[in-house]
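Appendix C. Worked example: Protein translocase subunit SecY
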Amino acid sequence: MKKFISTVKNIFAIQDLRTRILNTLGFLIIFRLGSFVVLPGVNPDALTKASGGILGLLNTFLGGAFNNASIFGLGIMPYISASIVLQLLTIAVPYFQKMQKEGESGRNKINQITRVLTIAITLAQGVGYVSGTIPKDAVMIDYTFFTISSVIILTAGTMFCMWIGEKITDKGIGNGISMLIMVGIISRFPGSFIGEALTRGMGGALGFILEIVALFFVVMGVVMLTQATRRIPIQYAKQIAGGAKAYGGQRKYLPLKVNAAGVMPIIFAQALMFLPALLAGIWSDTSDLAASIGSTFSDFTSWQYNLVFAILIIVFTFFYTAITISPRQISEDLKRNGGFIPGVKPGQQTEEYLDDVLTRITLPGSFFLAFVAIIPAFARLAGVGTDFAQFFGGTSLLIMVGVVLDTLQQVESYLLMGHYEGMMKSGNVKGGNSQDNIAVA
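Step 2, the predicted output written as structure tokens:
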């Protein structure tokens, strides 16, 4: 405890770090206040609440703003959708690949395209949000005027959330967009925690304590999954510069993450899991089989739902890892910079070796990721409340752990630059970007 207090003092002793932390807190408070501002013309008491499926997931990410018909009702989700589209385009379309390789100017062009695409997606989603989630009974003004004004306000709200995220990245701590998502998720934790405690009561105190212990071990497992890497040694040959000065000859490491795909496989799989119930609902009146399928895939605790969900996550993990990490590109970069893997010839053999290693570590990583995704279903079957069970795994927990670790790494770097003792005994948060690591292209 004494060391923790000392670390907090050191953090606030660094003026730049203190300013960044205060800026981050200020922007996050503005974001949370905006999630309670209801769209003009809406009666909040008449709103329906989305509790499951992809809509429930969106509401979790947005900290309740989706259910509140807030001016931040869509939050930064359209921006994330636009970013995913641009990321896939930079892999599949040569024009965007060339743009990405242009350095800072290319990244600025991609950012501008992402912003324009975000506006287009927000306008489309805004119409669907107003017509699909806000009942007409809750609208107190002319519906046509309400639809047009609300779509404009929702678009402005999304752009403002983007601006907050960019400001946090530039003048605060951590990645701004990820911070906004994490705050939205965490904002629902106190209510879920208190609700679970009250539901259990004094008679179920032991069961509640066991839930907390189980949650602790699940979080530790997710931390290990997030931080786990396979370090491949890279040797650089010595080179002579200017006829006399030798440089190079260093050994560094190429860190390949066990879970290189992050939370994207779960997001993709969860989006697809929404389709069976939606399609089955179309024929549910005329077919008993369709009604049965719709009922089964609307229940996230059913074994059919979780089996298909897990298989999709495993498939998407391999797919997303394959399109984001290119062994051929890494092999070419190593060869160009005079680096090689000891015992492996540069070129084709290096590419095959990296591909083999990546496949081996992705397989257990995909199974563990699938297991983490379906833990909330097991928690619900074990008697944990629906709201509290969502924090036992899935996208929410992975995002929270990833953002917290990234933020800790940035704080750690400021402490080390200020010649203060780091938060960890080793002086570096495990999994951070240390000097003996090289980035994966």
